Amino acid sequence: MNALAATNRNFRHAARILGLDSKVEKSLLIPFREIKVECTIPKDDGTLASYIGFRVQHDNARGPMKGGIRYHPEVDPDEVNALAQLMTWKSAVADIPYGGAKGGIGCNPGDLSKSELERLTRVFTQKIHDLIGVHTDVPAPDMGTNAQTMAWILDEYSKFHGHSPAVVTGKPIDLGGSLGREAATGRGVVFATEALLAEHGKSIKGLTFAVQGFGNVGSWAAKIIHERGGKVIAVSDISGAVKNPNGLDIPELIRHKESTGSLKNFQGGDSMDANELLVHECDVLIPCALGGVLNRENAADVKAKFIIEAANHPTDPEADEILAKKGVVVLPDIYANSGGVTVSYFEWVQVMD
Ligand SMILES: NC(=O)C1=CN([C@@H]2O[C@H](COP(=O)(O)OP(=O)(O)OC[C@H]3O[C@@H](n4cnc5c(N)ncnc54)[C@H](OP(=O)(O)O)[C@@H]3O)[C@@H](O)[C@H]2O)C=CC1
Ligand SMILES: O=C(O)CCC(=O)C(=O)O
């Protein structure tokens, strides 16, 4: 199901439960502002390449709009719209004084050199600099972006508006970033998992975990679960998946991923089809990659008893219904992954002018 259709459907369902006034419901379904810009850059070989960048500002009733910027080939207006809406609900659930926004560029960051990524980020910032700001809309990293991306945005934005470290969060520590922001989303996912398991009389120690995605969120979540005695028995990235029924050596897997760029050829486990990970036998499944990965095609085959939505909207509404009937407990994204935006708030207040 289309990401926006899914998010709108979930919101309407929540609005009905809350008894929300229909006019308020309608106004919250329509974003505050949708920005679409063309970004053309010279590639390293001198040819030109054009990309489309988006920033959707969903709502600012509770404070400046806040949310990450994603670089991924599947970025499209509906997806960014859905992710922006989720940021509004997430900031409210975490009770931090922000509204919601999200941005993205339709590109494959793995195909671009570092200097091409820098030029693309700077052109995107030139196109949107008047519409973001310390008190209006504050970007952060999401899939395919990181502290370096935020440093480029900060630098480019500051050329127009003067030095403004609070215009982005998730930036390098030397530029006013916060200790702990890089790990914050994964760490928050683990705190949320512990709280959920405690309600069911369980703890991380001794349970088995499957983690989809081994980037910022997935690798930190897996590392902390491993430290707390959980058995991470399967992990995936774009290259495929690796499994070990006795538990993967996560610190070793992180070193392997850092040195080779992928999970392939890891000696401490057997390779597995990446799609198989979602239906692999385990106690807890943690999707940490794309949206809509759990859907009507695979939900009935899920073996996990708990799903922690570390990714944004990994479970589409049709899958939610199937999983609920099976008795699988799903911890929603707007709670499970709110550790990242919470530490972004701490970073923002410490450098806000
Ligand atoms: N960063 C943050 O602070 C926050 C992120 N999130 C959400 O968490 C999710 C992950 O974000 P983040 O960790 O930052 O992103 P990253 O870009 O750091 O990592 C994404 C990971 O997903 C993997 N991946 C991509 N496609 C697939 C696929 N089809 N199958 C398996 N793995 C795949 C990537 O593989 P490879 O390594 O091979 O590229 C990578 O390991 C997103 O949904 C994001 O919106 C939510 C809250 C905050
Ligand atoms: O840290 C932030 O501001 C937002 C992170 C984000 O994009 C998200 O929570 O989905």
Automatic annotation (TrEMBL):
Taxonomic superkingdom: Eukaryota
Stretches assigned to the Glutamate/phenylalanine/leucine/valine/L-tryptophan dehydrogenase C-terminal domain: 178-353
Catalytic-site annotation from UniProt: 102 (proton donor)
Residue(s) at site: Important for catalysis: 142
Annotated catalysed reactions: L-glutamate + NAD(+) + H2O = 2-oxoglutarate + NH4(+) + NADH + H(+); L-glutamate + NADP(+) + H2O = 2-oxoglutarate + NH4(+) + NADPH + H(+)
Keywords for this protein: NAD, Nucleotide-binding, Oxidoreductase
Family: Belongs to the Glu/Leu/Phe/Val dehydrogenases family.
Protein name per UniProt: Glutamate dehydrogenase
Provenance organism: Populus deltoides (Eastern poplar)
